[in-house]
Amino acid sequence: MARRLLSIWFARLASDASLRKRPVEGPFALTLRSGNADHLHCLNRAATERGLSRGMALADAHALCPDLNTRPADLAAEASALAALRRWAGRYAPMVTADGADGLIADISGVPHLFGGEAALRDDLQARLERAGLHATSAIAETRGAAYALARHGGGIVPEGKVLQGIGHLPVAALRVDFATTEALARVGLTRIADLVGLPRAPLARRFGEALCLRLDQALGQREEPLTAAPELPPFGVRMTLPEPIGLQADVMAGLTRLLERLCITLAQHHRGARRMRFELRRVDRGTVTVEIGLARPMREPKRIAALFAKGVEELDAGFGIDALRLSAPLTEPLAPEQIGGAPGGRGTIRHDDALADLLSSLGNRIGFERVLRLLPAESLIPERSFVQAAAAFSETEPCLHRGPPRPMVIFPPEPIRAALGTPPCRFRWRRMSFTTLRAAGPERITPEWWLDDPAWRSGMRDYWRIETREGPRLWLFATPQAQAGTEWYVQGEFV
Hints:
By secondary structure, the protein is of the alpha+beta class. Helices cover 29% and strands 29% of the residues. Among the domains are: 237-340, DNA polymerase, Y-family, little finger domain (Dna Ligase, domain 1); 410-495, no CATH class. The chain has helices spanning 13-21, 45-49, 58-64, 75-88, 118-131, 144-151, 163-167, 179-187, 193-197, 201-208, 210-220, 249-269, 302-315, 352-367, and strands spanning 5-9, 28-34, 37-43, 69-72, 95-98, 103-107, 137-141, 156-157, 237-246, 272-283, 288-299, 322-334, 373-377, 387-391, 410-416, 418-419, 427-430, 433-446, 462-469, 474-479, 489-495.
């Protein structure tokens, strides 16, 4: 039986997925920031007809099309949409895998007769995608390269044994070669795939690279190109049907513990950890109560997870009783096995990292994970820009990038002080209190970042001093020697 492959290309996947959720009339585009400017990432048909193209600067696009509607691109949502389409395409083939960021490739060998032939299968696929509001082009051929090329240049079906006739008229860019190779071929008059077929491979490879010959031979079926699909993860969920309804919190927690033990065993078998868990309880009146929690990092330890469910279980309404329980992990991440014995923090004890993760999970479930923040170092000598805020549950701690004099634990906007003469001042008054300098270390000279216009740094460079006062506080002072009225002193931080 001959091998037959189906290639599906979603030319406007990101914009189609976004418009399905929030429809917009007229020209529309998703933007992606690159460098210091926004560029068009994906456009709908109306925007393309107005002369806009992918990669165009947003400012230029608005000049050509003032009524253009835009939204920021979400690459994660785009990848999720392609993954959902990959699962959906399983109705046409037992093996489907992603082919780039905007396409799918499926092995339909032995399948078309179930739909009435290859043409009927392709028509059914195109009709379903069109009804869903997705613009797609599909092609069927006996090689992956041929199907890929034809799908991105109009689509169609290449009969068995006629690959060259089916794709010979296509441009060489359809062979999945880079732009530089395409331009080099065009300069010598080689613009179509058919132009390359009769040329000797050795001179072609020496001049244009081995990749060109490889892609050409793969498209024509002269070299094998394996098609493999990543194994699908099983649905991580367990359920329990109760012989008698329950309603006490202790009984619900006991059932939850049993489900957690079973679910965590399944997660461990696949080296996964849960990042979100959903506990569904079915009442005897057929109503459903749901308790959902998030986790600050991948986890599969039943006792620690059960503690996070306790508050939600305490507040649920059991009605006339609960007769069925279901626990699932809709969001999981890879979690490799860990050594838990032999060290002081081994079995039976909670390590510092685990305690911190439990704290972040508890706070995140109460006030929202996006509100629990941590400070991460940034590449800047300016104190105000030497750190960034990030959600603690979705970021990892990083080593401090600062190499030099220590910085204070508390930094606040500069506050002027009344200082006596001297560098640093021997006495000064700050926040209605008088201080006497006991020890001083410095200066650390910091100049403003000339490529950023910061009004707070227009006074020029600063000389920072670490001051230990007789009264106790250890402060971070700086002077502005370039100030017009003479040297001015400010406090910007306090050492703990």
